[in-house]
Amino acid sequence: MTLEIWLLYIGTILLFMSTPGPSHLLMISVSMSNGFKRSLATAAGDLAANAIQIALAGFGLAAIVMSSRYGFAVVKWLGVAYLAWIGIKTIIASFNGQNRASAIPQASLSSLWLRGFITSAANPKAVVFFAALFPQFIDSQQPLLTQILILGSTYIVVDGMFLATYGKGASWIAQKISEHSKNWIERVSGFGLVVTAILLGLRSNSQE
User: Fold this and answer.
1) What is the pLDDT of residues 32-81, one digit of tens each?
2) What share of the chain is helix, strand, coil (3-state, %, to 5)?
3) Which of 19, 31, 43, 93 would staple 171 via disulfide (CB 3.0–4.6 Å)?
4) CB–CB of 127/62 below 8 Å?
5) How is the chain split into domains, by residue range?
6) Each residue's pLDDT tens digit, 139-183
7) Inter-residue long-range contacts of 64-67, CB under 8 Å, 24+ positions, other chains counted
């Protein structure tokens, strides 16, 4: 793979990420309610799911995912339901006390990781996306595995940078808000989770 092809690939994925997707909205929501450092667990979960999807695409299993429509639907809608439930639970909890500390305990790191993982895993057609994207930048005369590793790792790094940027910005905004308004942060965070679930559901419907 030449440097020119690699740079063209980076430009392509930057265009794809130019508008926030469900994973980015989730990162904003989690960072506002749990802080930037803890939100990195969510980013790690999201990128872990991406890595699995990239591996599946690289080994040519996209057709298997697409052929199992029932299994695809189950994974997809379980993820949507999980995120919606977490969002609604967060909104309700924000009304159960006068201050943020007593009303809403911070989520565990494993729970934050799971939110990120499920958000990406709820869109199994990402495997098809990678399977369609990668061949456009692969030289059939060069080792396939090496090129897939380069393309996959580049995507994860760029996506990780976007997630970190969104998360850091959301955390900075949350820190500037007065303590009296912290419960509103939780409500916005919960609403963001619900919106993320809705976007996943709408995206799923449009792809069926």
Assistant:
1) 878 888 899 999 999 999 999 888 877 765 555 556 666 556 666 776 77
2) 85, 0, 15
3) 31
4) yes
5) 37-207
6) 777 887 888 889 999 999 999 999 999 889 888 877 776 555 666
7) 65/124, 65/125, 65/127, 65/128, 66/125, 66/128
